[in-house]
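Entry 14. Ran structure prediction on the chain below.
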Amino acid sequence: MPGTISTPVRATLELDGRHLSYLDFGGPGRPLLALHGHLDQGMMWSGLAAELSPHWRVIAPDQRGHGESDRAADYSREGYVADLAALLEHLDLGPVVVLGHSLGGLNAYQLAARHPPLVLAMVVEEIGAVVSGPSRLDFLLPSPYEAATRDELVAGLGAAGPMFANRLRRLPDGTWRLPFHPHDTIESERSNWGDHWADWLATDIPALLLVGEDSPITRGQAREMAERRPHTRLVTLHGDHFVHLQDPAGFTGAIQDFLRTIDATSA
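Output, structure tokens:
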């Protein structure tokens, strides 16, 4: 049975004058850093945090430019990874398991590659070792970032309005904004594009690769990622790019099975 968790504690880390906000779901368990994808935020992992409690303590940042975290001067690969390394060093938890979806998955395995002492194992959902266009986020370009009222902002988003209606932020002056800037998001998506095989293969820590049966990642690439990298388990779930939403039971079960192996080997 899943544990129960209290309301997560929100805290902020200042990085060169910019605030990085994160949620700590607490509890006595071992630390797990959970990284959302584009257009999302740390709170997306609240259900998983409850399922993994009390054995695992989930810490979920709003990555740069998302949620409650400040916008950044750039959305480079180096910038995202540096934020996460700084957060883990600030928390001083020792090596952690890192889990990430899409953008978060790329950040997870690049964090492991570039800061190996910080990462014990990783769970990567729906991102390949090669990431390429065309963009799936260009529909955001005409979207407003702020509006005088919530209704005005939702209306300005058009067909995307219902997708983000419950995530909008009210500012101190009473205006409303999106939990991301559309132009920042496009820049960030393009910074993902490239051949990242060197980072994927840089470590041999235990890894779980989760993909959807209708994933935009080719089955051939997913199999190759698992075959070429030692200690990597590939699990295919129902759904496409959002298997954590489309097959939540399979998603959580696969993660719990994987984490039990981490417990067994590092006890």
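The chain has two domains: 9-131+180-266, 144-177. Will compare against last week's run tomorrow.
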